[in-house]
Amino acid sequence: MNVLLLSMPDSFEHMPAVAIRMPNGGLSSLAGNVDPHHEVAVADLILVQHRVREVVERLVRERAPDLVGLSVMTFQRKTAQRIIELVRALRPGVRVATGGYDPSLAPDAYTGPSAGAADFIVRGEGELTFRELLRAIERGSGFEGIAGLSFRHGDHFTHNPDRPVTGLEGDQIRPPNRDARVLSGYTMVGRQVDVVETSRGCTFDCSFCSIIEMRGRNFHPYSFDRVLADIRDARAHGARSIFIIDDNITLDVRRFEALCGAIIDAGLNDVEYLVQAMTSAIANHGETLGPLMRRASFRYVFLGIENILDEDLEFLRASAKNRARENGRSAGNATIKAIESLHRHRMYVVGGLIVGNPDDTRESVEANLEFARRYVDYPYIQHPTPYPRTPMTKEFRERGLIISERLEEYDGTTAVVRTEHLEAEEIEFLRWRAERWMKLRHLPKTLVHRPWFGLRNGAKMIAHTFRGSTLKSLLRLEDERAAFTRYRAIRAAERVYV
User: Fold this and answer.
1) In this predicted model, what pLDDT tens digit does every residue of 68-83 receive, in sequence order?
2) Hey, which of 84, 286, 348, 431 would disulfide with 341, CB 3.0 to 4.6 Å?
3) Shared-domain flag, residues 230 and 130
4) What's residue 112's pLDDT?
5) Nearest to 32 by CA among 22, 23, 42
6) Residues 348, 226 within the same domain
């Protein structure tokens, strides 16, 4: 069979395509786990944001796919439906499968009679389900026995039982197939980037998180032999930066320390690494973990700070993972200690914070923004977003705080919920006003570390960060809210890709 797998072009505000274009690791993993006689092409449409229609038309014409699969997040749903309509117009009779967070947690959105609906929904982890789906299509047999699959049956959909979470020991989940990618241009601030997975899952229950809703609270690691082989393969395909995309790699700190050592011993510290981490793990184990991470060539650490106020951490259910410990006892918030440890070992902190929680006031939002100004190298500040089936969504809905049902705005940096004290637009304005200057502050570090990229693209990065602003607004000769209104209009126009 000819299979075409597409990831959506919609990007996050904090990851402008001029600087960051990451591959979709899930699609290359699907490609590596189907039977080898299939012809699979993977196209990450983030690489062609300004010519999506043209590229999809070309790929459908050249690949003549029997099945098209789309990986979709909630804010990408409208784009996905438009691409499905386009694919069906180009190739009548083609079968369409969707997967990823949004179809897994909101499958009914893809089951309607419209041309933008799917024929199959792969729920949860997709490798084994997708493999079995292709086998069933080839055999012409039914789909009733495929766990984790929803499928169109006449005028209605049948939802098979969920597939149990797959353990990662052995070779049940095969390595990704990067050769299946048919587009190029992956970059992380001027260096070719790839993604590698060393474990799956998390045992915490943060209220904003879709991971536990999709796979439960658990943690499964790959063997180091498998991980190191995957890093070598990414490097052989040109990667000079690698983003480790684990849900929570610092859940098992001793394993992470051993992984750093294995990277060093294998001589794979000649590429740079990016990773997501918990503040408590970094703070409580920084003396041993920090030097190992630096020797293993970790450069950027996305630190899940979430919020600096205890009451907000309670709402986010993130208190435990942000708790420092001394002599076996709780010693308050771990954030500053974690940041100091990373800075001491010459790593950059990407500060992940969430502002606009139900009881936030202007003062609590500003407190978090001021913390980010003072301590983090690059801000990744988001607004709480009511993704399908998360505990956060339930509370926001019960309190009547959701002000937008336009899912294309559910990108984390568009405020779609208000608080008991602030309107959504005001919260977004406060974040936008402060964050631009924090991002600008990091640009000199980019110039030092990536001088050629900075010289070529520095102006584009500044233009992206300050879009909507004019010389008049920057000189304070115009109300900043006028620039903010223009920014919101630009951001809305950017969301139309097809």
Assistant:
1) 999 999 999 999 999 9
2) 286
3) no
4) 84
5) 42
6) yes
Helix (H/G/I), strand (E/B), else coil: 441: helix
pLDDT at 315: 78
**What residue numbers bound the domain in which 53 lies?**
2-159
Residue 201 has pLDDT above 80, yes or no: yes
Q: Are residues 132 and 228 in the same domain?
A: no
Mean pLDDT of all residues in 395-409: 95
Banded model confidence at residue 231, pLDDT cuts 50, 70, 90? very high
- Pairing state between β 149-153 and 120-122: antiparallel
Q: Looking at the predicted structure, is the pLDDT value of residue 324 above 70?
A: no
CA 191 to chain centre: 19
The burial class, CB within 10 Å (0-12 / 13-18 / 19+), for 373 is: middle
* Structure letter (DSSP) for residue 180: G
Decide: helix, strand or coil at residue 117. Answer: coil
Contact call for residues 153 and 142 (beta carbons, < 8 A): no
Helix (H) or strand (E) holding 312: helix 310-316
CATH number at residue 212: 3.80.30.20
Counted domains in the chain = 2
Residues 203 and 126 in one domain: no
Q: Are residues 64 and 202 in the same domain?
A: no
CATH of residue 49: 3.40.50.2300
- Structure token pair of residue 309: 């106020």
- Residue 493 domain flag: no
Residue 100 has pLDDT above 70, yes or no: yes
Map tokens 């003396």 to a residue: 287
User: Residue 488: pLDDT band by 50, 70, 90 thresholds?
Assistant: very high
- Judged against a pLDDT cut of 80, whether residue 166 lies above it is answered with yes
Q: Is residue 239 part of a domain?
A: yes
The residue written with tokens 């608080």 in the block is 419
What pTM value is reported for the model? 0.94
Encoded amino acid at 19, one letter = A
**pLDDT for the residue 325:** 57
**pLDDT at 332 exceeding the cut of 70:** no
Confirm if 34 and 174 have CB atoms less than 8 A apart.
no
Q: Please say whether the beta carbons of 369 and 434 come within 8 A.
A: yes
Pair 155, 191 in one domain? no
Gap between the Cα atoms of 54 and 181, Å rounded: 17
What's the rounded Cα separation, in Å, for the pair 180 and 431?
39
Same domain, residue pair 231 and 328: yes
How many whole angstroms separate alpha carbon 120 and alpha carbon 27?
16
- Greater confidence (1 vs 315) lies with 1
Is 175 a domain residue?
no
Write down which residue in 159, 174, 197 finishes a domain: 159
Report how far apart, in Å, the C-alpha atoms of 235 and of each of 148, 171, 425 are: 33, 21, 43
Residues 358 and 321 in one domain: yes
Among 273, 306, 317, 320, residue whose Cα is nearest residue 292 = 273
Residue 24, classed as helix, strand or coil, is coil
pLDDT tens-digit readout, 250-272: 999 999 999 999 999 999 999 99
Whether 234 is covered by a domain: the verdict is yes
